[in-house]
Amino acid sequence: MAPTRRLNADEIVQRKQKEVLEKDDTEKQLEKILFGDQASFFDSLNTIADAGDRALTRQESFQDGGDSNAEDDDMQDVADEDLFFLDAGTTDLPDDVMEDLREEQTDQDEEKHARKILWHDSDDERITVSLASNSRLRKLRDTEDDDIVSGLEYIRRLRRQYERLHPTPDWVKYARKKRKHTHEGHESDTDSDVSLDGSPTTSVKPLAELLRSTASFTTQDSKSTSSSGPLRALRLRPEVIDIQRLKDIASSGPASIDTLEFHPLHPLLMTAGPSSTINIYHVSPSSQTPNPLMTSLHIKGTPITTATFALSTNPTPDHTHKHHQKDPPHPPTETKIYLSARRRYFHTWSLTTGTLTKISQPLYQSRSAAANTSLTKSKKNLEIPTTERLILSPDSSYLAIIANTGSSGGVVHLLSATTHQPIAQVRVESLNSIADVAFYRDNSGFVAVGKNGEVSEYNIRERRVTGRWVDEGAVGTTTLALGGEIKDVKSVTRMMEMGNDRYIALGSTSGIVNIYDRREIMGHFAGALSASEEHVYRPKPLRTFDHLTTPISHLNFSGDVAGQLLVMASRWKKNALRLVHLPSCTVYRNWPTDKTPLGRISSVAISPDGGYLAVGNEAGKVRLWQIRD
């Protein structure tokens, strides 16, 4: 047998090509059916992509339904008819529901335009969600026919449902509204030193209407009198007082309440302190909202030490002529508040116009004015280092500012409350500086007491000291107060030079309070040749109170003519407060009790008619009591 020849690679390829037959039409058609052509291949790719989108949609819908479990927990207490629609035919929604939906849509549109989207997901526009296929999502429908919604609409409805379950807090609405008003009014108070609260509860309009009222501050409407007439005073009995606690003015605060004062004519109470904020409340304990906040003012970086009301009238006070007591009183045309701190300036805040004025002019007296007052002529000594201790006269005509000069005493700077210009200066020769100053009831002068207990009586008309005397047993005098009125003071010319206040109370660091009848003091100086006689006058106190053991920080008389009530308190011990009845000079034994929530007292105020007692403490709370006869 002849050997077989092995074929090379090229010969093998040629032989295979000869063996492959050409495809006929039947074979080509069958191959197209089984495998498809190029056009069918691309159509299949598009079909697969659409199937993937549908799968993604179903997956998103399932996930969104699963995430709503927390919402379903919140909806357990809601009736089913409020969650789902009954498939009982197509009916129109009630008008009130459609109105609510339109309002919500309007609010959402406004919010959509107001807020700028920081991040955008393109998938939100591409996907669709079926609300009817998932029972957990049916509560998101607006009508029964709602089913397929876009991703963006689905997000919006989820947000709407969340806001229904968790409404926006009131403080957020207030902040947004306040920011909106500030933006519309082009007011940018970020860097301002003064901010005025403009919330609806602190509207200036009701405060202005209240200031225009002619009704006096009385605890009972049936006992109201005109603002120009005398207030109806309570008739208190000794030893036992009828007092009832009312709703607190302020339950808490950022700092202590160091200044507390009632308005002379209207039911307003002002509070201030180291927080640099002045609040004015409407005293109405029986109203639906007891003692609402009327308005407030914040002066940045100015811890308030003095805040006092001032009633201004059109006639300018005449400081050169004598004040005529028989002249008819002028109705007040403006209510101001004097605000001072440990600064070389002070502020005036007009409640009538809302204007805040900073008095920063040089507060010193000229050399010629100093010569007229027979005081030192050194301009350096005439300057006022701080307005921390500022006292306003009862008729809002004079300002007294205490400027201590060290252990040698101090100077009382007397200024005009209208022009803020110096009128006179009184040097009080006292060890350890001046303790306190108080104006006479008739505005004819003032009393200044040093920390060593030496009392100086100064007459503004005569520009001279009319009497000096020493408090009995004084050990570090801290404060003083004047109260009551002398009826027969006009019969003695000498007495007219020392005011018409009947009582004077002096407190000391030992907790002792001495109360004097000023008629005896006036009688002594009426027969004296000079107030600077060698013999030092030491009057006997009408009564000495030793019920408190810590330094006396507050002494307040009631504003009635008789001066029936004296409040004495100390901030250095908790609940250290006592009430004294005059003229019996007896301490009330039934109040306060061990359970009376006074705290560490930082301020005390009595209403002009004596019907309310307000007490502020270092915790920022302001308690209110009503006194009855």
From TrEMBL:
Residue segments, region Disordered: 56-79, 176-203, 313-332
**The encoding gene:** UTP18
Q: Which GO terms describe its biological process?
A: rRNA processing
Primary location class = nucleus
State the similarity comment: Belongs to the WD repeat UTP18 family.
An example of a Gene Ontology cellular component annotation for this protein is: small-subunit processome
Name this protein carries in UniProt: U3 snoRNP protein
Record's compositionally biased regions (Acidic residues) = 69-79
* Segments annotated as WD repeats: 601-629
Q: Which UniProt keywords apply?
A: Nucleus, Repeat, rRNA processing, WD repeat
Q: Where in the cell is it found?
A: Nucleus, Nucleolus
Phylogenetic lineage: Eukaryota, Fungi, Dikarya, Ascomycota, Pezizomycotina
Where does the signal sequence lie? none
Q: Does this UniProt record's set of keywords contain Repeat? A: yes
InterPro entries to which the protein is assigned, alphabetical: Utp18, WD40/YVTN_repeat-like_dom_sf, WD40_repeat_dom_sf, WD40_rpt
Could you name the domain of life of the organism this protein comes from? Eukaryota
